[in-house]
Each structure stands twice: as structure tokens, then as C-alpha cells.
Amino acid sequence: xxxxxxxxxxxxxxxxxxxxxxxxxxxxxxxxxxxxxxxxxxxxxxxxxxxxxxxxxxxxxxxxxxxxxxxxxxxxxxxxxxxxxxxxxxxxxxxxxxxxxxxxxxxxxxxxxxxxxxxxxxxxxxxxxxxxxxxxxxxxxxxxxxxxxxxxxxxxxxxxxxxxxxxxxxxxxxxxxxxxxxxxxxxxxxxxxxxxxxxxxxxxxxxxxxxxxxxxxxxxxxxxxxxxxxxxxxxxxxxxxxxxxxxxxxxxxxxxxxxxxxxxxxxxxxxxxxxxxxxxxxxxxxxxxxxxxxxxxxxxxxxxxxxxxxxxxxxxxxxxxxxxxxxxxxxxxxxxxxxxxxxxxxxxxxxxxxxxxxxxxxxxxxxxxxxxxxxxxxxxxxxxxxxxxxxxxxxxxxxxxxxxxxxxxxxxxxxxxxxxxxxxxxxxxxxxxxxxxxxxxxxxxxxxxxxxxxxxxxxxxxxxxxxxxxxxxxxxxxxxxxxxxxxxxxxxxxxxxxxxxxxxxxxxxxxxxxxxxxxxxxxxxxxxxxxxxxxxxxxxxxxxxxxxxxxxxxxxxxxxxxxxxxxxxxxxxxxxxxxxxxxxxxxxxxxxxxxxxxxxxxxxxx
Length: 606
Known about the structure:
By secondary structure, the chain is mostly helical. It has helices spanning about 40-60, 65-95, 100-120, 125-130, 135-145, 145-150, 150-160, 165-195, 205-210, 215-235, 235-255, 265-270, 275-285, 290-300, 325-340, 340-355, 390-410, 420-425, 425-440, 445-480, 490-505, 520-525, 530-550, 555-565, 570-575, 585-605, and strands at about 195-200, 200-205, 355-360, 370, 380-385. Among the domains are: about 30-185, Oligopeptidase f, N-terminal domain (Butyryl-CoA Dehydrogenase, subunit A, domain 3, Up-down Bundle), CATH 1.20.140.70; about 275-320 and about 420-605, Neurolysin, domain 3. It is globular.
């Protein structure tokens, strides 16, 4: 089923007062030309037949087939995943272009139900694989090199073995997935349909969040208060969605015997719980030297006695208000990518000229940004809500990094190309860092350098501190839900507990801010996704430090890491660079880079 592998980022867009140039739109013809396309009907018919034949040929027979037979089984399963992924990518991407369109919503819902029904007979595949004896499977892998290539997939599947239910229960849960998807769509459509009246103008959520970066403080405050009022008016709906989704997860986790609400995410990320805990603890312990210290600096720059929540993303007073048109944004990112390695530029170039990016803000379009890989025989698509702020250029660099990663990993095939979320942020954050460093090197004045450094620190705080605070909120939310239904007020209390801790003593919190958890899509679409952002940022900071050392061969090692997709564990991928994410000191290196930027900003004040 269609899921956004890189959920909408918690980033605010910019003012759209000036022309942005010709903003690209998606051309989805490389998937299908329309919902009535003959090719789409052909693929749906093929999928229904292929799934039925797959079950007929292999159900209750995996234990008896030889290595060649198992390879054929895996390849047929992979082809099924590819066709199903192509169909749902098309339906999903059309929907996210215009979530308020009833026809597109119905088409995605109907298509998703068909694909779910067709693929339900395939549930046996992973269940029977997990019943194979370890020695028997090892012997099959040793016998056939082509089959052995899929060992990472077998390892990933078999990691779920302790949590596997009966065949009937697994099929039931597979079918039940469409209900959870419906709650996700309710969230998306509610968010997309919200209207905010700010200073006499009616805006959608993207335009209203954008005002939180407005130079005029009264505009930021007006937007924040309107957000609070509208969220409060709809908070019962959002609380119902969160209560239902977290309860559904609790029931499934309990039946599976998962130790914590986070266990499933850690398994899918192929990361050990202790590694995530080390990351979380390192970041929380660093709050005072990161966010607390930076926001105290920002308070002084803004000339305020106290910071309010609408000042968090305020532009700096020394920052010139400017709009970066699309052509400038493209050149900035392409120059940075190409300067790192011309191969990177060559991989990024098609995104701009072939309809692989949808950039404009449009009524009903999903907010934020993401990159979706579709399937390995097509190409990724990038969605932005581009309004020309310099930070929007960084969002472009980020999502383009995902796209380049997905193109490189496609050579692994449908099953092995899928990168765990913790590593999926590597190329995106690295792309941001390349773009930032290119812009920093080109700074002409001390003021320009200060603005760039401060902007990067804010982005890193949003990526590391804010996302770990989100993670702590989710941990508290899921733990509390196990004790019963949560009122909107109870959810708001959990939200405020992590906000005060992470943002620090420079802030006061307006009445109504306790409902700002309501619009964050990660909590609904991908529980516990958020720590992947912090993981990726810390990993890239350590990686970039190795790159700065100038040792030969870094670029080739980097490309090999991206090409590996999901075929290797993070230990294997980082070993060529001399890095180990399981070492608690690893995370301190990444956090020290952020702290070093703040040191430089403080030195500029002397």
C-alpha cells in the first residue's frame, strides 16, 4: 500500500509576494497517463492473477522447494511488489497533489482496497519463510549466489519471527490495514481543508504556517493565535484520530508481544534500541548547549525580554528579506551538488527538466515536502511547497538528496533498494550540508555569514532537537494511551512537557500552543519516524567531518553507500569511513558541529 517513505517535513515556507518564475509540476505519465489508462487496467488485472497464482504455487510448499525454486519465488514476489507499488504510487501522488478532490480521494481509496484484496493471499510468504529452519535456509543461501543476494531481506523478515501471529490473524491484520489508512486520509483531508483568517485574508495551513517566519512580529503573533484557534476548534477530531491510531497500534503490538510501542519502528529501521536510546539521550543532554543557548542569542538579536512561540522561526533583524526565484534555487543546489562530484549533478539534473518535481503551493495540495521513490523501473518524484525563502532552497536540496539516493539504490531491485529510515536521511541531509557550505563559502560580508550560520543552526535544531522532542512526545503519548482514552487536554499536557524542556528558558508559551501537536503528520502517518531525522543529521555531521579531512576516495565510498540501498546494515555502511553509530561518542561528534556553529555566532557578538 502507498505510504510516504519520507513524510512531510516540519518546515515553514516563505512569502510569495514576488514572482518565483516557472515552477515545475509533476508529469505522472511515466507511471500512468490517467486513472482510465489501459496500462493501469492491464496491471491491475495482472496483479490480481499473479497474486492468486503465487499463492497457488507456493502456499504450504516453501519448506520443500530447493534453492532455485526459492529464488524463483522471491523474484515473482518482487515483481508483484513492483507492479503494486507502481499502481499505488500513481494513485497516491495524484491524491497528494489535490487532497480535497473527492474523485482523487475515491480513486486512491478504491485502488488501495483492490491492491489490499489482491495481495492478501501473499501474507503466507513471510510467515512460511519464518517457519524455515535456520540451518535449512542457510544451506539454500550457500547453494545459490543469486538467492544469497537476498539474505538482507530474509534477515529483515526473520527479525519479525518472535512477533509473528497465526496465518489467519496475519491475513486479518493485512485486510484491516485499509481502516487505518482511512483514518490517515481523514487527518490529511481535515488538515488540507482548514481555513485561517489572518489580518482579513483567508489562508490554508501552509500559508498560515509561513507567516510564522514573517519579519513583522504582529503578523507572526496573529498567525500563531489563529492557528491555535482553528486547531482548538478541530481538536476533538484530531484527538479522535490520534486516540484511534495509537489504540490500534497498541492492540497489534500487544498481540504480537512487542516489548514497546517503538519496537516495530526499530525493527523496520534495522537499528538497535540501544542505539536510538544513545542518540536520544545525547540530544536531550545537549539541549542546554544547543537550543537553550541559541534561543538566548536569538532573543537578544530580536531585542526581546522574552521569546514567544511565534518568535521561534522569526527572521533575524540583520537578515535582508529576499525571495529566491526557482531558477536561482535550481542553480544554487545544482552548483553545490556538482562541486561535490559531477556525477551527483548528473543524477540531479533530470528532476528539474522532466516533470519529476511539483513545486508550487496550490489549494488542496498536501503541505510540506517529500520525495517518493515510486518503483525501481521508473524514478522518484519530489513534492515541495516552494515560496522562495532561502530555507526553501535547503528543502529543495534535502528532497533532491532523497531523490538522488533513490535513483542510485534502484539498481538493487525492488526489495533491496528500500533504505531503512535511519539511513534514508543520509543523502538528503548531506545534500543540505553541501548546499549550505557552498553558500557559506560565498558569503561576502560578516553579516551574510552570520545570517547563514544562524539559519543553519535553526535548521539543525529543528532537525535534531525538535525531532527528538517529537519522539519523546510520541513515546509519552503511546504509553499514556495504554492507560485509556486521552482527552485533548491530556495530549496537550504531554506536548507542552517536551516543548518547554527542548526550547528552554528563553520562551513563554501562549495559551493555545498546547494544541499544536494536531497538525504534525508524522504522528499519524509514521509513528516514531521522527528520530530518523536526528539520526540522519548526526550521521551526516560525522560523515561530513570525515569528508573535510580530505582523504582520497571519499566520494566513491559515499556513492557506494547510497547504491547499497537497504542491502547492508548501518555498521557495514559506516565502517569504510571509520564510523560506528553504536558508539555513544559518535552522536556527540555530530552535536559538537552544531555547538561549534553556535560558538562562532557567540564570538561574533564580542
